[in-house]
Amino acid sequence: MSISSCTCGQDVTETELMTRLEEVIKENKDKAGGLIPALQMAQIIFGYLPDMVVDRIAEGFNKTITEVAGVISFYSFFTRNPRGKYLVRVCLGTACYVRGGKEVLEAIKKRLEIDVGETTEDRQFSLEVGRCFGACGMAPVVMVNDETYQRVKPARINEFIAQFATDEELVLEGEEK
Amino acid sequence: MINITINSQAVQVPEDSTILQAARMINVQIPTMCHIEKRDPIGACRVCLVEVEGAKILQAACSTPVSEGMVIHTNSKKARMARRFVVELLLSEHDGNCQTCDRGSDCELRTLGEDMGISDLAFEGEKIKPHMDETTPALIRDSAKCIKCRRCVTVCNEVQGVGALYPQDRGFDVFIGPAFCRDLKDVACVQCGQCAAVCPVGAIAEKSSTPAIWDAIENPDICVVVQTAPAIRAALGEEFGYEPGTRVTGKMVAALRRLGFDSVFDTNFTADLTIMEEGTELLTRLKKALVDKEDVALPMFTSCSPGWINFAEFYFPQFLPNISTCKSPQQMFGAVAKSYYAEKIGVDPKNMIVVSVMPCTAKKFEAQRPEMNADGIQDVDYVLTTRELAKMIKEANLDFNSLPDEEMDAPLGLSSGAADIFANTGGVMEAALRTAYEIVTGRELPVENLHVAPITGLDGIKEASLVIEGTVDDWKFLEGVELKVAVSHGLGNTRRMLEYVKANGCPYHFVEVMTCPGGCIGGGGQPRFTDDSVRLKRIAGIYAEDEGKKLRKSHENPDVQKLYQDFLGAPLGEKSHHLLHTHYAPKSQTMSD
Ligand code: SF4
Ligand code: SF4
Ligand code: SF4
Ligand code: FES
Prior knowledge:
The complex is a heterodimer. Chain A is an alpha+beta fold. Chain A contains seven helices and four strands, in the order ααααβαβββαα. In chain A, helix 1 (11-28) runs antiparallel to helix 2 (35-46), helix 1 (11-28) runs parallel beside helix 3 and helix 3 (51-60) packs across helix 4 (65-74). Chain A is elongated and about 50 Å long. Mean pLDDT of chain A is 85; it is low at 1-12 and 169-177. Helix content of chain B is 34%, strand content 14%. Among the domains of chain B are: 2-75, Ubiquitin-like (UB roll), CATH 3.10.20.740; 90-206, Alpha-Beta Plaits. By secondary structure, chain B is of the alpha/beta class. Chains A and B meet through helix 3 and helix 4 of A and strand 8 of B. The complex binds iron/sulfur cluster (3 copies) and FE2/S2 (inorganic) cluster (FES). One iron/sulfur cluster (SF4) binds next to helix 4 and helix 5 of chain B.
């Protein structure tokens, strides 16, 4: 998947975000080990770490882009992809796995046409996997943002997704299938 | 000093030594892989494991400091078996075929496996994810062969100060390469090839131009002209068993002729020409600054080294106006061959192919730069590294060692000793001073044997100054001026120097920059493996070549003088300007533009 930086045209917001990023850089750049906290803050501000942010942080910390990229890719909590409105996390802990978590994941992937770690083009959904949300009795479990959904059935994934889809097209498409 | 015992031998070693350093002092060999001389050990590969009495686990010799009373066994069965296991693991993950690999006898992994007597692997590991990066004109990277030793990372970050390579991802998926596993063309890599020079295996190498050159040689309608850089003659022999620094100029010429090149010429010739142009440019800039009080960019930086040009374009664009407008000797040669020489022998430049043999991978990049042509004709068509030339010689079944010594062809083959020393750090500066001083004062540069001692040797940043006295009429304005020069090699040193100049202003008039440690003799395309002892031997070979010449100064080269008389006119004249000079523009180093 190609990684696109923000082109949503919300210029004002973007300028604001960049100003906040500059503050974060200023606060952390002279601290020992300041890079990781700065990247975490940047991810909170932008939701992910796009090229532009990586460039700016590398410059601010006087490090090469490749080194900063090495740090980002080392830690799994950093993401280079924009997060959708709904973060869908499918549990693949042992209980969920044996009770169909894998099939649920496959069905969601197929329905949203994205892979794990990706976001739909309309920025509605991001897909990730998790390891045990503490609801093993109700496996397989899926979390959407902060809500837990239990006993999700692979065969009923279209309806499952449709309840979040505010985008009209997506709803229609979902119903059709 | 502290007392330790290595393999039952008692020794005294300095306190801050590592086990590896201590062992080397008494000629005890310990295999290494990730370790590079003069750099902090990273202890990544574990190929150097040894047994230390009293320690629970085996220790990495490269990163373990010695301590009083330490008893070390480098060759106990336990140590040998552990090292063997490490190498077996590397081999089991390694996805390469030695038969078809670019690395042959100089592959360190293969040699290590052979030395350890590993003939077949007890286990087949999960193979590394393959990825071929052929996106740059200079280099190819084959990640399947990478053993993750990180030598390239150390060199690119610490020695070259570029930082285009760094470990990405983690665990088994670790990928040594550019940001987010992209390709080299997507990051600010200067194409110096120092990573390829230190890689122990076939994971980074130059992109080969050999097939196209064989085709051109076979084609009877094409005139194929070859030029060889000064640094080749003191290194090519290493590929045929000679000691580093052995000069093989005559055999090299003989080999090139037998390979079928129509004319065998010398980049040295255009090194002499460069001195004429660049020396005049420096004096002109000084005149503008001192007499006409014009705002002119000083210091002037040399422009021969294409990795340095890339580096300045990416990282120090504010200094681009300071870089001499002279094309490098390689490019000047192409431009002169396809105009002056083509005209002389009545060949249409479209039917002429210029091949260079260079110690350098960045020269491959330089040759295809859009700036490097005159009237739409590309100056240089193909570039071979020293290593590639050696391969061609082997492919053609030439017995290099028994070849006679032959002379370069005329009229682009004659050169002065000043041209030879373009090969090593300090050489371009010395060559320029030999000529400029004599032009300005009418007297020979007053230093022993024409060598400017403070700028020779392997120190990273070197300085010299020279008070100009007894000037001739044209250059009276330089009377009493203290000319200050500096020399840097290795881009890490260059970065340090430029940061200093940025912060404190510039104390220099003229600065020589060479991309590679030691200069071209330590280039990314030279025979492997190059360490400081090899660098010093090659430099000694080059100085010997210089001292052995009748002509020691570029302006005395009669064939260069004739080129000016018959064709170019004067240095910095209109024709020179058109053929021999160019300009550069800033390049972005970020990902988002
Ligand atoms: S890198 Fe070395 S071990 Fe690997 S295929 Fe090439 S020669 Fe063989
Ligand atoms: S060619 Fe030079 S700059 Fe590019 S990756 Fe290799 S060492 Fe770094
Ligand atoms: S590319 Fe070569 S030098 Fe770099 S980590 Fe891999 S094996 Fe080592
Ligand atoms: S050489 Fe010692 S750990 Fe690599």
